[in-house]
């Protein structure tokens, strides 16, 4: 595994993030409601496993690329928030 970088949800993803993965990340970011109490937004972590990018949000949402190169969004119930 190769570590990548971290950034705050809603911010522009770093250039190291492939465009197809950016689309999946944007769709997740757009689904997160604004916090009227001003709490900080969760952060993304980009890692590379066997040369494939994986973006994971602090909440347990994971965005990867499928075999067709399109983004796949899933939630790891054992990670992040319920």
Binned, the helix content reads 10-25%
Kindly report how far apart the N and C termini lie.
26 Å
| Structure class | alpha+beta
Number of strands: 5
Shape: globular
Stretches where pLDDT is under 50 for at least 5 consecutive residues are none
Rg, rounded, reads 12 Å
The description of the largest β-sheet is:
5 strands, antiparallel
Strand order of the largest sheet: 1-2-3-4-5
Q: What is the N-to-C succession of helices and strands? A: EHEEEE
Q: Which helices and strands appear, and what pairs or packs with what?
A:
Elements: E1 2-8, H1 19-31, E2 43-49, E3 52-57, E4 61-65, E5 71-75
Antiparallel strand pairs: 1-2, 2-3, 3-4, 4-5
Short structural description:
The protein is of the alpha+beta class. The protein is 16% helix and 37% strand. Strands 1-2-3-4-5 form a five-stranded antiparallel beta sheet, covered by helices on one side.
């Amino acid at each position: 595994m190769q570590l990548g970088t971290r950034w705050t949800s809603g911010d522009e993803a770093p250039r190291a993030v492939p465009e197809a993965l950016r689309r999946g990340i944007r769709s997740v970011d757009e689904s997160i409601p604004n916090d009227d109490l001003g709490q900080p937004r969760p952060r993304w972590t980009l890692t590379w496993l066997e040369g494939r990018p994986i973006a994971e949000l602090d909440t347990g949402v994971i965005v990867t690329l499928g075999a067709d190169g399109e983004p796949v969004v899933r939630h790891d119930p054992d990670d992040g928030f319920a």
